């Protein structure tokens, strides 16, 4: 792709680094910004810069937050005896949109994937174990994607957590194998949480 401006080329190259954005889409986005008011583009730039520099991760659940403790963990209206274990922030948002869950979360920050060099030590597993030691937790819900990596992670976590006297369940598989939680419709995801089953039952 030939560019009439080095600045334009550099901007397109940066946008094209975003997931799912090719050069043509990146060019369209950059040209769109060029057609906006300077103040509007500055507001966009400031929002992205503040996001990168000021964002925090909740010290309890590791969800993305504006403060040291996220709003969910800080809320007295949530059931803190119920922890839903998810892969990342997108899954927290997907489950919250169902309005079917009132517990708290634990964000692993990924899934075990030996082929990608991701092991248990790369995830927020130890902090989950510490939460169970320090708090009156009654149930853990595994809400991970129905993939090989998701199943591997659940199997590992179950072995780590079964020492505790708590219920360990997994969301019902109304979700097709290979499905990512963020792409599941809210009704299906909501029902899969409400109709969750003991994890050991899912093995049979």
Q: Could you explain the architecture of this structure?
A:
The termini are far apart. The chain has 2 domains: 6-54, RecR Domain 1 (Helicase, Ruva Protein, domain 3), CATH 1.10.8.420; 57-171, Dna Topoisomerase Vi A Subunit, Chain: A, domain 2, CATH 3.40.1360.10. Strands 4-3-5-6-7 form a 5-stranded mixed sheet. Strands 1-2 form a two-stranded antiparallel sheet. It contains 9 helices and 7 strands, in the order H-H-H-E-E-H-E-H-E-H-E-H-E-H-E-H. It has helices at 6-15, 23-34, 38-54, 71-74, 89-96, 126-134, 148-161, 186-194, 199-202, and strands at residues 56-57, 64-65, 79-86, 103-107, 139-142, 167-170, 197-198. One of its GO terms (biological process) is DNA repair. Pfam families: RecR_C, RecR_HhH, RecR_ZnF, Toprim_4. A zinc finger (C4-type) spans 58-73. Keywords: DNA damage, DNA recombination, DNA repair, Metal-binding, Zinc, Zinc-finger.
Query: What is the helix/strand order?
Result: HHHEEHEHEHEHEHEH
Task: Tell me the span between the first and last alpha carbons.
Answer: 55 Å
* CATH fold assignment of the largest domain: Dna Topoisomerase Vi A Subunit, Chain: A, domain 2
What is the count of distinct domains? 2
Helix content: 40-55%
General shape: elongated
What is the overall number of helices?
9
Total number of beta strands: 7
Give the name of the CATH architecture of the largest domain: 3-Layer(aba) Sandwich
- Strand fraction equals 5-15%
CATH class of the largest domain: Alpha Beta
**Largest sheet features:** 5 strands, mixed
Low-confidence parts, pLDDT < 50 over ≥5 residues? 175-179
Mean pLDDT: 88
Structural class: alpha/beta
What Rg, in angstroms, do the CA atoms define? 20 Å
Strand order within the widest beta sheet: 4-3-5-6-7
């Amino acid at each position: 792709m030939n560019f009439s401006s080095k600045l334009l080329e550099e901007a397109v190259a940066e946008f094209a680094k975003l997931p799912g954005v090719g050069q043509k889409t990146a060019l369209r986005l950059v040209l769109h910004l060029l057609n906006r008011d300077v103040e509007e583009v500055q507001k966009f730039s400031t929002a992205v810069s503040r996001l990168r520099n000021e964002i925090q991760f909740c010290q309890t659940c590791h969800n993305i937050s504006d403060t040291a403790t996220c709003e969910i963990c800080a809320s007295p209206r949530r059931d803190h005896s119920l922890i839903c274990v998810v892969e990342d922030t997108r899954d927290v948002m997907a489950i919250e949109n169902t309005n079917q869950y009132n517990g708290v979360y634990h964000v692993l920050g990924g899934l075990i994937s030996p082929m990608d060099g991701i092991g248990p030590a790369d995830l927020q597993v130890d902090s989950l174990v510490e939460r169970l030691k320090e708090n009156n937790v009654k149930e853990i819900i595994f809400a991970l994607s129905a993939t090989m990596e998701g199943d591997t992670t659940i199997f590992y976590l179950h072995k780590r957590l079964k020492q505790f006297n708590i219920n360990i369940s997994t969301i019902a598989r109304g979700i097709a194998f290979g499905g990512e939680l963020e792409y599941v419709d809210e009704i299906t995801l909501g029902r899969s949480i409400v109709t969750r089953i003991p994890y050991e039952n899912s093995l049979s």
